[in-house]
Structure formats: structure tokens, C-alpha cells
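ok trying again, last paste got cut off:
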Amino acid sequence: MSAVVDPKLSSSPSAVAPSGAAAVPPSPSGGRPGWGQAASNEAPTPASAARAPIPILPRKGRVQGRNYDKVLYPALVAIVLLTAWQGMVTALKLPPYLVPSPILMMKTLVTDWQTLGMALLFTLKITLFSFAAAVVVGVLVSFLFVQNRLIETALFPYAVLLQVTPIVAVAPLIIIWVKNPTASLVICATLVALFPIISNTTLGLRSIDPDLQSYFAMNRATRLQTLFRLRVPSALPYFFGGLRISSGLALIGAVVAEFVAGTGGNSTGLAYQILFAGYQLNIPRMFAALLLISLAGVGLFVLMAWLSKLALGSWHASELSRD
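nice, full thing came through this time. structure:
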């Protein structure tokens, strides 16, 4: 005999259940029958427990932790290296005119601080002047390059020529041609620090979104509007990357120029103090001057990194990354 099914109950799963079988009530969520009840009675498994949310520290705490690590780890490495250096000098009984110990170097730095401090100020003055000149000239040249490909093609090889020409070969000529010693040193250091600004800024000015460029063209934006409202914001990460490189090169250029000028009697920079200490075999003072140059370079790099963080920290991925 065939079973008669009521049309009003034909949509219910229990209406067509065979005789002798328990009907499965429908799921309240409208999904597969019985899932809601099974989920409520099922015990948590190790796999589900492993997927439990892990407490995450606030972003401010993570950032502060990373900042501490950036100081702590290099400091630990420096302590290990200085300890090994001091132990080697003590164990091998090396004389000070060959390798001075870190303790003797620091004592010399304190004793000769009046001389070395004035020399450091002069070297920093040359470095900052040349770095500022390189930034201004480099940005203006990049603005010129980005306006016309023909101009960039014609002039960019000469920018490369400035980069690959040894400053040691050019510095004596500049010192002879320019009568002012400070101006001649600034020009030499500027030539060394100029190319990274030109290269990075030009690359950044050309690295723009084609869709945004089409949007500006569709709205008939002028070259000046496109430059300052589209190209300059896109070039900022590249520009600050160039600043980090150029600041160190400006210091190197200043020291090299001081070496050349120092042989002619200009005894005001750290480079001359290194030369003079070498002539007198005053190796501890030489190491103290080298330490000041290194610390000045690290300070410039940290300053450029801070400026980059200040300018890009709220919007660019390079500063927002949590890795």
C-alpha cells in the first residue's frame, strides 16, 4: 500500500521519515538538520582549542618593545666587542702605539676633548652645509629631470660622472681654485653627497600610479599641480631613503676634503687631527678622533631615520609595517 502524504507537511523532513525511524527536527538556522543541536552538545576538541584567540599586546606596547630592541641589541654587541678588544690588548701586551685599549682611548678622548671637540664642530659644520646644499641642488635637478625625458637623458650621465669621479683627485683642484677654505671643503663634500639625492628623488617622482596620472590628466591638471600634488607625495619614501645615504656621504666627503686641505696647513677638522696624531705616533688620539667621526655618522643616520618616521609614519607602508 502506498503512503499518503499531506501536502502541507511535504516540506517537513519528519513528514517523509520511514516508519520506525526517529524524525530529525529541522535546524533553527535553516541549514542541515540537527547541526544546531550537535554543535551545542559537542565537547571542544584539541584542534578547536588551538584555534582559540591569542591575546595580543596593544600596538603602542609592541612599538616601544621594538624601539628598545633597536638600542639593546647593538649595545650588547658593542659591549662584547669592546670587552674582547680590551682582553686581547691586555693578554697580548700590545703597546699603545700599535693598538690602544678602549680604556686608554676613552681617557685620551676626555683629556684632549678641547682640541677634538672643536675639530668635531668644524667637521660637522662642513658636513651639514654640504648636505643641505646637496639636498637643495639634488631636488631641483630632479624636478628638472622629471619634466622632460630629453633633459634627463642629456644630463643624467653627468650626474653619474660626478659620482664615479674620485673626490681625492678633484679636491686639490677645487681647493686651489676656491680661495675660501670653508667654501672649498663644502663644494668637495657636496659633490660626494649629491648623486643619491638626484637618483632617488628622480626615481620617486617617476614612480606614480598610472591611474592617478590619468585622473589628473582627465581633470586637466597643470604640470605644477601634478608635480606637487601627485609626484612629490609619491617620491617622499625614495627621497628620505636618499637622505640616509647622502648624510653619510657628506660626512665622508668632508673628511676626505679635510685630509687634502689639512696637508696644506688647515688644522681645524678631525681629519687633520688624525693626520697630526699619526705623525706624532699618538695612536690613542687617532682612535679617539675616529670614534668621533663614527659617532657623528651614526647620529646623522639616526636623525634621518627619525625625520623619515615623522614624515611617513602615519600613512606609508614602510613605516607602518609591524615586522
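cool. Residues 1-25, 27-40 have pLDDT under 50 and may be disordered. The radius of gyration is 34 Å.
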